[in-house]
Structures are given as structure tokens and as C-alpha cells.
Amino acid sequence: MFCEHRWDRSLAFGETVFPCPRPGPAPMLLWLLLILAPGRQPAGALPKALLLLKPPWSTAFEGETVTLFCKDHHSLAWEYVSWYHNETPLRKQSGRLQISKSGHYRCKTQRSSLSDPVHVQFLPDWLVLQASHPAFERDKVVLRCRGKEEEDIMERTYYKNEEKIGSSYNSNITVYPAFNDDSTYRCTASGMYILGMSWTETSRPLKIQVQELFPSPVLTASPSWPIEGSPVTLTCETWLPPLTSRTRLQFCFFKEHRALGAGWSNSPELQIPTMWSEGTASYWCQARTVIPRILKTSPRSQIRVHRVPVSDVNLETQPPVGQLIEGEDLVLICSVAAGTGTVTFSWHREGSERSLGRKTQNALSAELRIASVREQDAGRYYCAADNLDGPVLSKRIRITPRVPVSRPVLTIRGPRSQAVEGDVVELRCEAQRGSPPILYRFYHEDVPLGSSSAPSGGEASLNLSLTAEHSGNYSCEANNSLRVQRSKMVSLSITVPVSHPVLTLNPDVAQAMVGDVLELRCEAQRGSPPILYWFYHEDVILGNTSAPFGGGASFNLSLTTEHSGNYSCGADNGLGAQSSETVSLNITGLCKNKVTHITVGVIGCLLSMLGLAATAALVGRFRTQRKSGAIPRNIGSVPGPDPPAQALHSPPSLSRPALMELQPLYSNAHSPRTHQKGEEPAIVYSEVKRADPYDPARQDREEAAEGYENVPCTSLALDH
């Protein structure tokens, strides 16, 4: 009958298994003592030796042999080994021992103490349950169900406390027995007879006694009675068996409930640089493994410390005396050359009954920080130290903080409210606070102008003769080697009087025509705006023009004959008027352009009249010859029908010469000086009339050329 196969997730720790009933004879109890880790030993004792088996099983069949080896912390021992069987010494002293008898075996080397006993059993059974050796706390233990005829076994089943923990055909299983595990293990093997019937064999029960992986640590101190203030080395003593070299221990040291140092460390030692007397304070340590996770604690112990009285008390400052700047923090350092235990430090200033501060600590020095020292904090300071034997005072030191310069104020003083070019102004810079000497620097648009020193503090000044280029922003800087401060910007605007203006005429001629438009331009090369310009003719005001942004101004004048004479202009920007030199101008009767236009028009009209008269004479002569028959009608014509009679007979008046009369000439041409861009060109108007009022064709011809002929004057002259 087979057992039901069930698994539990806690199988890895060997805590829960499922029972399965087994028929057969009453079980026999087999005690297997596995050596795991050495038990506790006195501090300083040699570590225990470790007894090893080959093959590594503590249970075997009768008739088989097992080889024993003895190992200490360094290596396997090959000679001078003491062997024991059931506590009886054996003669053999070689490094290994071959056995075939059941019993308890132990060994010992020259560098180790006696090992723990290992019980090796040789059984006459058909099926045995074997456990691997050695194994350690929380370490894995391999269980093997072995039969004398392995080929007949079809299935193996393993039990813990009669609960099934696994089954397989030919595989072992692994368990992780807990510390002081009292569980009982067994296995069954099953197969089939030739006739198809099943059979089952059961091993003897196996009880594994699990011991700790490493002993609980013991805390020791070196020296055991230290002087207060001296270093002490704490050691957390424990060790691992030889075969567990891959396992690493970690250590942590404690004082009461507070961890010392950086916490967990791989070193079993911790050095305390300075040991202080703490009355009844207790120390202890812990040791642990990471995999598997095992934690063990040492017993608590007290360390007696010898106390030394304080001596040679000294007071120092940071920053050093003479280098303290107002506003910085002052650190008073009180120290003792000797003394142990809890020391009480206090700080004092002469003239003050109350102490500045007090600290009690296990140290040979202490600090007191005074934040933001002011000028009124100057005085003589000292400190005291006491470790229950009475206070000891330090020497007195004088502390005087140096004051950095404050932000200076720049003022500009001049002879008038508005600075004018040529004035001499005083630049005055003053810092209200600051330890002397103070160096002042003056700047115009961040360009240095000069410097001045105030050896006893206070203010400094710089005189400046103003020019037009001195307009802009001014500032000053104060420096007393502790701090550099820059003042706010102060703006200074310098007004420049106008220079003598220059009058120019456009066009620039000494003689002009009546009707021309003359531009008078007045300009002062220097002067702060706005500038008001006045224009004069023979010292008579013609008008004024303003230049809000400086520069020049113009005044246009349409010329008449009365405008001949001397012209001048004046400029004024409120700081005094300036006059230009006079410019003379002569005005003639007519405009040059008008004379030119009239001359061209008259000549053109005369040529037109001569041309018309010549044409009329030729036409009259031609008609007279045709009436007399002197000229054939069709000379130079091609044969064809005769022209109409109306075309051949013209009015008599046509044979008379046409008299032409030159009509008055009108012109709207303007002077080129007044002609602006975009205007139409000058126009000359004229009319041509026939002399014979009785000409029958007059009406037709007048309709064709009626009215004035609008021709540009210049073009008409060129056409004629």
C-alpha cells in the first residue's frame, strides 16, 4: 500500500511533514549524533577538531567500511592524531582511521581540542535511511533511502514525524533541521513482484540531534581596566567550524541600547578612541550569519574606567584674534591638556555675571558659537573646565571685531542746481560705518575717475571740471580690506550753452531773382536742446523756428525787390543767446527762368508765322497756274476716273495768302527754385489766327485747331 504524495512549502526548513501509516514490525529507534558546530568553550581555549567521514554517511550496511579524518582550523591532520572509540583511546596516530564497527568516535590534533563524538552505525537491515555528515545549524542535510538491491526499488518515500515529505524513484531529498530539532525521520521503498503484487520495506527511524552553527559570542576589553580618555579595543569572540569557511560572520557592538561605531561590520573588533567612565553602563555584542540567518548575543559586561582630573585649560577663538569681522560667528574653543570623565565647560566675559554658555560632555574640548558678533560685543573673554574636582580657569583674551564698511552714499555738489559745462562740482562719498582706513574710488559709467583715502574713517571727495562728455551716471566705492561696497548710481545731466550759429542760404548765391524762394538755414554746432532760432533781415525779425532735439532749423522766404540786404540768425537754449555772422543778398528784377521761357516762346511763334505765310503763298500760286492751264490736272497721277468737281474747285479765298498774327503769350511756368518734386512742368499758352476773315474754309480749319495750344514751353521751342 502506497502513501499519498503531498508537499508543504515549509519543507525547506524541515518543520512540517505529512504522516503515512506503515505496516510491518515495530520500529527500532536509531539515534544519530551529527556534529554540527562546536559547543561553548572558555575564552582563549583551542578550537575543537572536526571529525569527517568518507563516504559522508553515518549509517552503513554491515560488511562495509568507513574512513575517518581529523581536521582542525588549518587543514587535515596527517599525523599525531589521537583517536577515541567509545571514549577509549586507540593506538593508531595517523591522519585517518578505517572502521567497520558501530560506536562513538572522536579525535584530537596538536592544534585543537577534542572533537564532538560521531555515532557511526553498521546495520544488517535490507533498507537503511542515511543522513549526510557533517551538517550545521540551518544548513542542509541530505537524506538517502538506500536498499541492498537498488534495482528492485521502484519508488522511495520519505517521512518526518509520520508525515510524508516527498517521494521519488532514485533521488535523495534535502531537509533543513532547526536548532534542537526533535523530529523523527524514516523512509519506505516499494516495488513489484513478478506476479504483479507490490511490496514495501521500511527503514529504521532516524532522529537527528541539531546543534548550533557557532557558539554564542563573548565580549572582552583590552585593556581590561583602561584609563578614562584612553582607547579601548572590544572583541566579540566566537568562531566557525573548519568546513564553514564560506560562511561569513558579522558583528555589532552595543553600549546599553545604543550601537557603537558604524553598526554591523565583518570585523570582530571595535576600537573606542576615548573611553569614558559611565558609572554602571554595560557593553555587549552580537554575531550573525547572513545565509543562513542566525543571530546570537553575548552576555552583558561592565568595564571599569580610571578617572584623571582636568589641567591646563586653554581658550582659543575662531577666527583668530584680530581677524574677527562684525557680522560673522565667533567660536570660543575651550580645551584641557589632561583630564578624564565627564567635563563641564563654561564661557565668560569680564563685566558680565552670567556665563555665556555651558556644556557637559565626554571630551577634552568644547565649542561655544556666538552668532553675528556686533561691535558692542568687544571685551575680555575666558573659559573654565571642571570634572568634579573643581573648576580650572583659562587665561583671558581680548576680542575686538572689525567692522566692514557699509554701503556708501554719493552726493554731487555744484554752484547751481543745473550743472553747466565749465562748472566745477564736488563728488563726495561717505560710508556711515566701517573700521578705518577706508579707500574711496569714484566712477563715471563704471570708468574710474580717481580715488581718495580716509585714514581715520569718514568721507572723501573729488573735484571735477565739467565738460559735455561728463553727463551720465556716477557712483563711488568704499573699501577697508574687509568688504567692498558700491553706492547707488547718481545721474548728472550737463547743459551745454549754444555756440555761435552759422547762417547758410539755399541756393548759395549772392544774387537772386524776384519770385525765387530762398531757404535760410541756421545751425549751432554745439548746445543742449531745445534750441530756439531767430532769423533777421537788417536786424528786423523775420520769424523763429524751434529745434526740440538740437541741430539746425530753416526759414523759407519768397523774394521781392525789398529783400535785398544783410541777413543773420540767432540761437538760444536758455543759457545765453548767440548770433551768426551776416550774409548779404542782392535781388534782381526778373526770374531767370521766366525770361528764358518768354524768349523761347516768342522765337517759336515768329518761326510758326513765317512758315504759315510761306505755305499760303505757294498754295495761291499753284491754283493760279491751274486756272491758266499751265499745269495739267493729272500730272503724276495714274489713269482713272476724274476726281469730283468739288475737289477740283477750292474757295477763292484759299488762293489768298493767309496772314498770321502772333497772339499774347501766357505762361504758368514757375521758378525752378520753387518747383517741387511731383509738380507739372512749366506750360506756355499761345494762339495763331488767320488774317482773312472771309475765308470760306475758315470755320473748318478753326474747328480742327481751335483754342490755345497747350505745349510745354521748352518742347515748343525745340519743335520750332
TrEMBL record:
Per the record, the domain of life is Eukaryota
SMART domains, per database record: IG, IGc2
Q: Which Pfam families match?
A: Ig_3
Q: Where does the protein principally reside?
A: membrane
Which stretches are transmembrane? 598-619
> Which GO CC annotations does the UniProt entry carry?
external side of plasma membrane
Give GO BP annotations, semicolon-separated. Answer: cell surface receptor signaling pathway; immune response
Protein name, as recorded = Fc receptor-like protein 3 isoform X4
